[in-house]
């Protein structure tokens, strides 16, 4: 009789972005203020403490090869994924967008009201990865910078 293996506990621990120029991406994410860790990896890969899941930057072609996916063609527009920078207030959303643009991001969409009672805008990093700066009902950002969801 075989013993049933318990299901693993689901968790999201790392988000890895494929980047075209890792040096430029490191400069950009450093400028946004994320804290780089494991700097001994040099420019092979970069890891950032985000207050939640780790953000990793990895050369696009090597990431594709690692996942056994083709390197070409690369999407030239929307990648089908967004990253979110949840904020405490609407003013903070505006500040995040202005800050990111000041560090080299491209504004995709100015902040505006949402149909669900929130407020958000979008910017793109140097590789076009879309980031949403947002404040939303039921999602709070604690003093620990972690997102806390209403039940």
From TrEMBL:
Q: Which domain of life is it from?
A: Bacteria
What is the residue range of the signal peptide feature? none
Do you know which InterPro entries this protein is assigned to?
A: Glyas_Bleomycin-R_OHBP_Dase, Glyas_Fos-R_dOase_dom, VOC_core
Q: Which residues form the VOC domain?
A: 11-136
Transmembrane parts of this sequence = none
Q: What is this protein called?
A: VOC domain-containing protein
User: What organism is the protein native to?
Assistant: Bradyrhizobium huanghuaihaiense
Q: What is the lineage of its organism?
A: Bacteria, Pseudomonadati, Pseudomonadota, Alphaproteobacteria, Hyphomicrobiales
